[in-house]
Specification:
single chain; about 180 residues; mainly alpha; two-stranded antiparallel sheet
Amino acid sequence: EKQCVQYSAQGQVSYDFKNAELYLLDLFAGKPLIQLEVRMFQYSNAEAGSTYALRQKVKQEPLTKEMMTAILKELATTSRARACLELLETCVSFLQATGGAFVQVLDVGEKPLGEYVKNVLLLGSAEFGSKIISEQVLLKHIDSLWKLLRDFCVTDPFAAVSPKYREKLDAASHDALSKAA
């Protein structure tokens, strides 16, 4: 430290960064290098809808109409689709975090999604609830699958409301309701 810091007659401090660098190199010379892995990823629903970073890392392509129809038929219910969507969001988070800021593009688009979950994420017991998703959907289809599942899971909160209660209010009723509120 004393070799890197000097004080002037007026009491000002000046740093010799070149000397500091040489000191650190000497200090750590001969020490084994370590490979640091900082595990960071976005948890499910932490920032829902954010597949922008994924599209930057893995080139995305849309699913075929036939595959979309078959997936929705196989999942059948919104609860199964939601469970699938949660697992998919975990995959998206890991793909987005892979390589950190240093890796801009990943060449993994042709890898099947089910294989990625089992062999890379080591989530052997995780199931998408669809054989088509596990075996035929590739990593390059994740964005399309995410949008399909999101749209399938979003339900109209007024779907079960009787049509007679969904009729537009006349002006007088609207004014009376506004005044009461």
